[in-house]
């Protein structure tokens, strides 16, 4: 396949054109893969263009999000005359770094990561001897340096890495603990894990396991109103049993050395608003911070949140309290803080399709001013970066499904033809197709009459 065609296929995934040397490496790799596929099954995909879209496109996009742009090939600018790439989201791994790919097989996504950032140290871990032999031929043919191929099982590896990648691994759920054990401490912090349940000992054990895997905060959910959660006496259903609440809080707090936080509602129903007593139990049990939604479980999300209970809670406890519920604007956040005396606000549904609301609210609370508006191009980049993060975290099958709900929210917030666009996005069956559709629609949106992101009709969260 010629370089021009490869470049065109990769265009929706990347901010810049790859240098000719990298395009040639991809072409050589495709030839090798197709020849080896006739001997051993490396990938079920046989079409070269589909391989580029499903493997290289997604993996190169993930690399652009996760790796420091300074780790990209230094000659890229001189080869293609373009500036250094700017990732759509802040990189979480800085150059140089060590990357390991588990169950490498065809080498995805480890090899595309190496092509994007040649300075990284790459370890390909593959227990199958024939597949490991194929990887060695790829490394030789592409003249890659600082690549180590280990023909062994991941469980036998004792070293740690800055980043671990895996895809299409058999027994995916079982390999995750092994992958986590190979990751060196670092990355985005703090790492918070939320737990829900009604068995105090099971929750304590779950907290210990997650802390051993790197969790820095354990959050307990006693606020979820969903029937499937409350039906198992979890979430806000626990507010009916104060003694069980105390038992759970004490068990989890005593099980771990990291802070334990709690999310609650004001009570089970309006006749049983016991949020103040629950807050006192939380403080006595050693809970580090408390978030309170200003509705009862019976309210679900109907009516308006009330903040009187949150103010009463704050008046009787000294631990940090965060107010939650119906906070949709910067001004509302200020009003709620002033009324309740809470230490902060927690935003939930208001961020659906508008993650930039946190920037708006923080700017207003910190400086008392409205944040400068975002350009449509910046909003586009945020959305594409969000998609890339979802794909990288959840993988192909789950990633495309999780992304659908977020894309639905973005359509409602931003587009006048939201119903039509939403239908096409919901029909996309793969991450590559979904991403390409989103990219194309947002490119048109950015170009529409050079309209600034400060349209008067937009909600406040979109003008921030």
Q: Secondary structure elements and their pairing?
A:
Layout: H1 3-10, H2 20-37, H3 48-66, H4 76-80, E1 98-102, H5 110-116, E2 121-125, H6 129-141, E3 147-150, E4 163-166, H7 172-182, E5 192-195, H8 200-212, E6 217-222, H9 227-230, H10 242-255, E7 260-265, H11 275-285, E8 289-293, H12 308-316, E9 321-324, H13 330-340, E10 344-346, H14 357-367, H15 376-394, H16 396-414, H17 418-427, H18 431-447
Parallel strand pairs: 1-2, 1-4, 2-3, 5-6, 6-7, 7-8, 8-9, 9-10
Helix pairs in contact: 1-2, 2-6, 3-5, 3-15, 8-10, 10-11, 11-12, 13-14, 15-16, 15-18, 16-17, 17-18
Description of the structure:
The protein has 464 residues and is of the alpha/beta class. The protein has three domains: 3-182, Vaccinia Virus protein VP39 (Rossmann fold, 3-Layer(aba) Sandwich); 192-346, TIM Barrel (Alpha-Beta Barrel); 376-462, no CATH class. It is 47% helix and 10% strand. It contains 18 helices and ten strands. The chain has helices at 3-10, 20-37, 48-66, 76-80, 110-116, 129-141, 172-182, 200-212, 227-230, 242-255, 275-285, 308-316, 330-340, 357-367, 376-394, 396-414, 418-427, 431-447, and strands spanning 98-102, 121-125, 147-150, 163-166, 192-195, 217-222, 260-265, 289-293, 321-324, 344-346. The strands form two sheets. It has a six-stranded parallel sheet with strand order 5-6-7-8-9-10. The protein has a four-stranded parallel sheet with strand order 3-2-1-4, with helices on both faces. Helix 8 (200-212) links the parallel strand 5 (192-195) and strand 6 (217-222). Helix 15 runs antiparallel to helix 16. The longest helix has 19 residues, at 48-66. It is globular, with a radius of gyration of 25 Å. Residues 69-95 and 452-464 have low confidence and may be disordered.
